[in-house]
Specification:
Blueprint lengths: L1 H5 L2 H6 L11 E5 L5 H9 L4 E6 L2 H14 L6 E5 L12 E5 L9 H13 L1 E12 L5 H21 L11 H6 L3 E8 L4 E7 L10
Parallel strand pairs: 1-2, 1-4, 2-3, 4-5
Antiparallel strand pairs: 5-7, 6-7
Bound molecules: S-adenosylmethionine.
């Protein structure tokens, strides 16, 4: 469905900063879904240990298949089937966190809760990669994005048990946890954004 509707546009957002960020040793991918970002993480960070958390067993199975198809020798990934709202991540363990097209699934209070939990799992100076939809601040771009997102939420709420009925920008919650937006690129008339956030502290300290 993604390929039919968006081609490679979403994948370009997921991987926008992957070749620029510092080498990561412990990576957490949350709501990873089909595993396309996971495959690229394994390509870029060959020595890293990775934890891939998703609430859906079929999606985890799909991610496993995707990884096996592209990188049959990869053994460094631990797959965890869990609801991130309840999953207790290890403290200060990860120097890279990736949450792509994930926060758009949740209501505002859930986005805040997830960011609090994941921020506690971030090592000092960790990178956080986050690609998602957004609503630009004005003009035709804003109207276009609002229409597209309205249709998307109506469709996905009809087809799934999606908790959210609108987009919650995660920026203020990340800022509150000391994360600073380091880079952002936008695509598709501002409908898509790809972020690289940096956590507080110095990169490379306290890694497990
Ligand atoms: C919209 S998909 C995004 C998938 C992928 N990250 C991408 O870039 O396309 C959201 C993913 O989050 C997972 N998910 C939804 N709610 C979750 C939760 N509470 N805990 C963990 N994973 C969840 C879904 O199973 C799904 O794989």
């Amino acid at each position: 469905m993604e390929f039919l509707l968006a081609g490679e546009k979403l994948q370009r957002c997921r991987t926008a900063f992957l070749d620029e960020i510092p080498a990561a040793r412990n990576i957490l991918l949350v709501g990873e879904g089909h595993g396309r970002c996971l495959v690229e993480c394994c390509r870029r960070f060959k020595e890293a240990r990775m934890v891939c958390v998703d609430a859906s067993e079929p999606m985890l199975a799909q991610a496993r298949r995707e990884l096996k198809a592209h990188n049959p020798k990869a053994t460094q990934v631990e797959f965890i089937g869990a609801d991130v709202l309840n999953w207790p991540p290890p403290s200060k363990a990860f120097d890279l966190i990736a949450t792509n097209f994930f926060f758009d699934c949740f209501r505002e209070e859930q986005v805040e809760r997830i960011i609090c939990r994941l921020a506690a799992a971030a090592a000092p100076g960790a990178s956080w990669l986050l690609a998602d939809f957004q609503i630009p601040s004005g003009g035709l771009k804003r109207i276009r994005s609002r229409l597209i997102l309205w249709a998307m939420y109506a469709f996905f709420r009809m087809m799934t048990r999606l908790p959210a009925n609108r987009l919650t920008p995660p920026d203020s919650f990340l800022n509150r946890k000391g994360f600073v937006l380091h880079r952002r690129v936008e695509a598709e008339w501002g409908l898509l954004h790809s972020d690289w956030w940096r956590g507080p502290g110095q990169f490379g300290q306290d890694l497990v």
